[in-house]
Design brief:
Helix content is 17%, strand content 23%. Strands 1, 2, 3, 4, 5, 6, 7, 8 and 9 form a 9-stranded antiparallel beta sheet that branches. A 4-stranded antiparallel beta sheet has the order 11-10-14-15, covered by helices on one side. The protein has a two-stranded antiparallel ribbon with strand order 12-13. The mean pLDDT is 85.
């Protein structure tokens, strides 16, 4: 047998085994250090995506609250002149808060529904809903294009308003029922009417969710693993110009001559002031019945939203001030601290100078 066919010596086998074990050990060490980092990055990415969703949904909802001119509403009027379009309480058929309630972790927005043109009552309510044909109303569709199941707010300059639901439209009218547990309020011909969407965003502490309720039947989560939600409000320091009525029309804040009746009108350019939550449910009062509201709600100009989110996995949360809800992480490389999202949003309908 030649030397080349003799195989490996014991020493060579030992050296080769040691080298293979060293390489494998290095690979395993690298993998063991990277797995926690990879899992942490996955959880951090999920946290960031939830933060983006919260900022997008709430920012857009607040910005669109009360929009009227873009929908082709009657000139001189405005939903925000007379009806609060951001409220710190729940509205709707289920679990509605009383007008005297203001909650830090609840925000309701009222926005003109897409594709709807605001109009005026052609005949009084109660009764079938008939609307005067306004510019922009589809000529071949009754009640200005409102469909069965649409939610409509009827309101007057004074701030008195009511939410109703539309039944099957006929040739020129549609039956309506009250959305609240009461009969439809009385409104004279000429009162304003517009299809709206109400959305109540609230914190469900038991489920650790930010949820949205549509005022009727739908109540669903937006994001999970939410630790805290807070809504704060800034507004005009006096009578808001957006609450002024048409010539000769008295509103909640101004008399028929345009003179403020609850507080003086601030000079142009005056900075907004912070509005403590308790001042939004202590009067003076406007509206009537279940839709009574604090007049200060018409002063609101901007909303700050603070949402604290946590990683979903228990082993991504540790202990200490970075974690609202402690977890069981034992490896610092696995930690994903809570994320706090702060959104400052101004409804376009309320951002006008006062």
């Amino acid at each position: 047998m030649s030397v080349d066919d003799a195989g490996f010596s014991l020493v060579e086998l030992l050296v080769a085994s040691v080298l293979a074990m060293a390489v494998m050990g290095g690979v395993l060490l690298f993998v063991s250090t990277q797995v926690p980092l990879a899992r942490a990055q996955t959880d951090a990415g999920d946290l960031q995506q939830r933060a983006r969703a919260v900022a997008d949904i709430l920012g857009r909802a607040i910005a669109e609250a009360g929009a009227w001119a873009d929908a082709g509403g009657p000139p001189g009027a405005s939903l925000a002149c007379c009806v609060p379009v951001v409220l710190p309480r729940r509205l709707g058929t289920t679990g509605a808060d009383a007008p005297t309630v203001a909650r830090q972790d609840v925000l309701t927005t009222v926005a003109v529904a897409p594709g709807v043109v605001p109009g005026r009552l052609l005949s009084p309510l109660p009764g079938d809903l008939r609307l005067a044909q306004a510019d922009g109303c589809p000529p071949a569709r009754p009640v200005c294009g409102l469909r069965e199941g649409a939610h409509v707010v009827i309101f007057e300059w004074s701030g008195r308003h009511d939410f109703v639901m539309v039944g099957p439209p006929g040739s020129d009218a549609a039956p309506v029922t009250a959305r609240q547990a009461a009969s439809v309020s009385s409104f004279a011909a000429g009162a304003f009417a517009v299809g709206v969407e109400t959305r109540t965003y609230y914190f469900d502490a038991a489920r650790r969710q930010l949820r949205v309720y549509d005022g009727y039947r739908s109540d669903m989560p937006i994001v999970d693993d939410v630790e805290a939600v807070a809504f704060e409000y800034w507004g005009a320091p006096g009578a808001p110009a957006t609450a002024r009525g048409d010539a000769g029309a008295a509103t909640c804040w101004f008399d028929a001559d345009g003179v403020p009746v609850l507080a003086a009108e601030p000079p142009p350019g005056t900075a907004n002031v912070r509005m403590p939550i308790e001042t939004l449910a202590d009067g003076p009062w406007c509206g009537s019945g279940g839709n009574t509201f604090d007049a200060d709600l018409l002063r609101i100009r901007s909303v700050r939203v603070t949402v604290r989110l946590a990683a979903s996995a228990d082993d991504a949360r540790g202990r200490g001030p970075a974690f609202f809800r402690p977890g069981r992480a034992v490896d610092a490389r696995r930690l994903v601290p809570d994320m706090e999202v702060i959104i400052d949003a101004t409804p376009r309908a309320l951002g006008a100078a006062y």
